[in-house]
Specification:
Immunoglobulin-like; Jelly Rolls; 7 helices; signal; glycoprotein
Length: about 550
């Protein structure tokens, strides 16, 4: 059913008056109020475009009206109206104003008056009503000239919808076509993956170049339309690209968005307060495995078939699945005085667990951070007794009961691998590590530098201990790597023999004087050197001071 140019360009008030006056030539007193209401509705209505998707913004509790006209002279003219709520549920209805046949009824005046009243009341009728947030399509057929009024209302909050009217039902559809069974099937669930499949859209089989499937993954709920999903993401603070199908430009991404393009698949990950929202467009493939999910988490999956030419979309029936719980981490038993060296994978961010059963009331846990950054969490019989980020050497002295069970959980807090040495011991008089000074920094004296020598100093303790000094020649571009990648748990056994400078013993009961200096000679002018000092205690396990880089003078 095609709207004539006459109807399109006729002013709204003239069109309304012409149509209504033709239908109600002489309204009775009882119908005057209805007539005025009809005029008011039309005067405050907008014409609805035919063959085009219209976006309509609704204010809370304020109805909005649109109309369209079916011209006279066509037999059984079809039309369809599709309404897509983009947020909250709305109410909408279709009213039709028909022009009744003008046939006079013979008889007295009372009979003619009843006939006029019946004619007035029968010209308007409500043919469709809906309340909800689903995408709804009304298919209609008209055999008379008629004017249709669409009324939309949002009672929850301001929102927007899209409306598509077409009177040409023979030349294809704006929206891609869904299969007869539009469900999404879950065919595989893992700890971090879910595999989905769905039946092909007839549109995808006919127009492969202009049609593609897009998948939305979130942890909140399913969405009944693409515009509803986009609205939800925007309301969480994100600026979303116009549609999933057209989100192919990196410049559209916000700082909270991550774009991944691999194997002709576009993925956009939005970091929102309610969790991640992932968008994946995969062309015309109808099977997809969603990777990198969190174990033991429920996810909601929605598939949209998108027409790249018209930007219109249709939604499959969403589904959900819960990833498998992560298996309990393997627990390593920790024995008295045993030193365990733990290496943690930063990329997987998994806990490494150590279990210790106390045979004494007092327990001494020792942690030596070797590389990276590590978080330690200690529980006793299921209750947390310590939790913090490790730095250098750390002791935890805990008091409990005999046969208490301690669980030590370690996790890397950065993406690179981290490592730590752990010991549990009831023997406080036999420490694993030597008594440490207040600081493990090495100091160099700029005024004492020469072209051939460097003077360094470090703090000692009140306990006689062995100190060994090592040097290594490095280049300017190696400084950062040497300092960052240094294994603070490794001892002199990992160094080349030529790097050893000396070993010495010293201590001082007065901590103010527990300082030693050493001048390292035989160096080359204008050269960078990395200096390390190792402290050995009674157990023979070394503690490495913080490395120091010093450059000899170029000219003397």
């Amino acid at each position: 059913l095609k709207m004539s140019w006459f109807w399109l360009y006729l002013p709204l008030h003239l069109l309304t008056a012409t149509f209504l006056c033709h239908s109600i030539k002489a309204p009775t007193t009882s119908s005057q109020q209805s007539f005025k209401t009809d005029l008011f509705n039309f005067y405050h209505s907008l014409i609805l475009a035919d063959g085009k998707e219209t976006t309509i913004h609704l204010l809370k509790d304020i109805p909005k009206r649109y109309y369209f006209v079916l011209e006279e002279g066509r037999v059984l003219a079809p039309f369809s109206i599709t309404v897509t709520p983009c947020d909250v549920p709305i109410e909408w209805s279709i009213l039709v104003y028909k022009s009744p046949p003008a046939k006079a009824t013979p008889g007295d005046d009372d009979t003619r008056e009843v006939s006029k009243s019946q004619k007035s009341s029968s010209m308007v009728s409500t043919i469709f009503n809906y309340k909800g947030n689903s995408v709804e399509t009304y298919m209609g057929m008209s055999s008379h000239a008629a004017l249709y009024l669409l009324e939309f209302l949002s009672t929850e909050r301001d929102t927007h919808i899209t409306v598509y009217l077409t009177t040409d039902t023979t030349s294809g559809h704006l929206y891609p076509e869904l299969p007869t069974d539009p469900r999404i099937d879950v065919i595989g669930v893992g700890h971090t993956t879910v595999t989905l499949t769905w039946k092909h859209s007839p549109s995808a089989l006919q127009h492969r170049e202009s049609i593609q499937y897009c998948l939305l993954v979130n942890e909140k709920h399913n969405y009944k339309s693409l515009c509803a999903a986009e609205t939800a993401i925007r309301s969480s603070g994100m600026k979303l690209p116009p549609t999933l199908a057209l989100s192919l430009s990196p410049y559209l991404l916000e700082p909270q968005q991550v774009m991944i393009l691999s194997n002709s698949e576009l993925s956009i990950i939005n970091k929102v307060s309610s969790g991640e929202v992932r968008q994946v467009c995969m062309g015309t493939k109808n099977t997809y495995t969603v990777p990198n999910l969190s174990p033991g988490t429920q996810y909601y999956f929605d598939v949209f078939i998108v027409n790249l030419l018209t930007n219109a979309s249709a939604a499959y029936t969403g589904t959900f699945a819960r990833t498998l719980e992560e298996p309990e981490p393997k627990v390593t038993e920790l024995k008295d005085d045993q030193v365990v060296h733990v290496i943690l994978d930063g990329k997987r961010q998994k806990f490494y667990s150590l279990q210790y059963q106390a045979r004494h009331k007092k327990i001494h846990f020792t942690f030596q951070l070797c590389r990276g950054q590590i978080r330690v969490h200690i529980t006793r019989n299921g209750k947390t007794v310590a939790s913090e980020n490790l730095s250098g050497l750390r002791y935890f002295s805990l008091k409990g009961k005999l046969l208490d069970t301690y669980l030590v959980q370690l996790r890397s807090t950065e993406e690179s691998n981290s490592s730590v040495k752990v010991q549990a011991s009831p023997h406080f008089h036999k420490p694993l590590f030597p008594l440490l000074p207040e600081s493990l920094k090495i100091k160099s004296f700029s005024k004492l530098r020469t072209c051939r020598s460097v003077t360094i100093a470090w703090l000692g303790t009140q306990e006689e201990s062995k100190y060994c000094v090592y040097r290594k020649r490095i280049e300017e571009d190696q400084i950062w790597r040497e300092l960052q990648s240094a294994d603070r748990c490794s001892g002199p056994e990992s160094r080349h023999k030529s790097e050893k400078v000396l070993c010495k013993y010293f201590y001082d009961l007065n901590l103010q004087r527990a300082v030693t200096t050493e001048t390292i000679k035989g160096l080359q002018a204008g050269t960078l050197y990395l200096f390390d000092v190792y402290l050995f205690g009674p157990s023979g396990i070394p503690v490495r001071y913080h490395s120091k880089v010093v450059k000899t003078r170029k000219k003397c």
